[in-house]
Amino acid sequence: MATLTKNGLFFIVILTSFITCQPKGYYTQQRFKMIEKQIVKLPLKDRVFKWDSLYTSDSLTILQKANILFDKANDLQDLDEEKKAINLYEKALATFEKQNNDEMVAKTLINMGISLAFLNHKNMANQLILKGLKIGDSLHNNYIKSRAYSELAHLFYLKGNKQKSIEYLRKAGELFKKMKDTAALSAMYNNIGILYKEQHKPRKAYQYFLKSFNLKDSLTNPGDLIESYNNLGIMNACYKKQPDSALIYYRKALKLAKKNHLKPINIYENLADLYKKNGQLDSANYYIDKAIATHPENQQVLMHLYNMKLRYLIQQKKDSAALKILKIKDSLVKKNESELVKETEKNLKTKLQLLLKEKKIKQVQLVNKKNRIIFLFIAIIFLLGLLISYQINRLDKLNLKQEQSQLEQKVLRAQMNPHFIFNVLSSIQSSLLENNPILSATYLSKFAQLIRQNFEFIQKKSIPLAAELQMTRNYLDTQKFRFGDKFDYHIKIDPALDTNHYQVPPMILQPFVENAIEHGFKNIQHKGTLCIKVYKDDNNICFDVIDNGHGYQPKHDKKEHALDVFKKRLLMMGKNVLDSFNIESLKKGTKVHFCIPKDYFEQKS
Predict the structure, then answer these.
(1) Which CATH number describes the domain made up of 416-604?
(2) Of 171, 234, 163, 148, nearest in space to 199 by CA
(3) Model pTM score
(4) Can you tell me the distance from the alpha carbon of 148 to that of 166, in angstroms, rounded to the nearest whole number?
(5) For residues 166 and 162, what is the distance between their CA atoms, to the nearest angstrom?
(6) Are 502 and 541 in contact (CB under 8 A)?
(7) 3-class DSSP state for residue 507?
(8) Cβ neighbours, 10 Å, residue 376
(9) Same CATH fold, 416-604 and 1-179?
(10) d(CA 574, CA 539)
(11) Over the stretch 136-187, which tens digit does the pLDDT of each residue have?
(12) Is 1-179 in CATH node 1.25.40.10?
């Protein structure tokens, strides 16, 4: 049967053009395009490595490198590696936008939308494709617009809105007509026919299959023409009730499939069904045997064919042959099917035994009835168990969410306690009285920014790591002003770490920074130093907070302290995160260390 697939009309890979003026020492545009065409001719899996090799060349411009990322992402998309493809599309898109290459921006947005759709992010996919369509419209580029309409049609098909899908396909068809792209137009008609067929509108489906077939001379892919023959055969057999016409189309499809060394499984199956409806069971058996002999890779397809064979044999009362087929099916069930399918096959075997033992029909029917009641009872119990499990799990999640929210509120309340605000304002007031308005204004601005950040982040579950570090700097600057520069601080960030990419819970560093200043540096005779390190360690992002104060002195009472709240926050991110947490007393000062897996950050981003 024909289906809408990723490799059909909806997934036409578009290769792009580049700026022709190249700096001295770089590939000319003609040379680069020639290399690109040579790589595209290679097998799909080999191309990925070739793109990587070409990307390392020093003779490429920034735009050429972006095009290589785009080409590699297209190949990864065809290999169903959608997440990797999206990562490369994002990198290429940044360059295309920076270089104001609107055509490539539109194409990249549409391709990203395709990958997001297959990852079930349909709303985001819809937004990106519409954005690409808008750019294509501003460029008056019919090729980009037709591609966008086709992908929107595919997206709404995935959403189950087949009527909307048909509307977008028709819009794409109008553009195909303007571009005189008869091959794409034929594929579009075929897809509309499939949609009408799935909507149980055979008359309209047949009309569009016929339109597609009438453009058969434009089809360069033999698979498309085979699909057209097959679809017309189905419609003549099922809708027009013209088996002779259906037979002609099936035979043409079969001949073309053999000529191109393609497996004609669907054609054999349709022929078998056609002969079965005409009462020619021997011919039906012949074509089912031919279909089985093609050795379908999909085990579900093979099981379906054996089921058809089994029904034909039972109808012909060929019990011994049916039992042989049943044994073959039983062996396949043991290898490939679940326990539920095994039970279904046992029921089928029971039915065959009933045919061989007519004297025990009533008794076996009674047994089957009891089995069905038991099965139904088990199914109901199973569904109830699932429902109860779902409700328990949902309740646990709500409790966890509530506990996490309470923890966040505790941290946020601790961040801006009244004593801190009063002390800072007192320090600013003192500087004003000392006739130092510039210094007062500077720190009043920092303090205001800190207050604003506190109110902004209080509603958020996570913030960019860059924002967390900026807020920490504001807090440290405010505290330095308050204590009269009795301590210094340093924030060291791993150069390879993109702090804008990762998300962290707000004020994750604040408890230890505050503790170092308020307690670690209290009454020390030397100048305090606070160092914050943020770095990558394997698949983790780690934080170190080091001071040269009094050292770690835990409190032993029944009150809940900031450290207890912090540990609970880490535990909610995973036991492995809590296990990484460590407070170490140094010869002079304290070192706090904890790590969070990178996949947690990326999950929140």
Answers:
(1) 3.30.565.10
(2) 163
(3) 0.45
(4) 14
(5) 6
(6) yes
(7) coil
(8) 10
(9) no
(10) 15
(11) 999 999 999 998 999 899 888 888 898 999 999 999 889 988 888 888 888 8
(12) yes
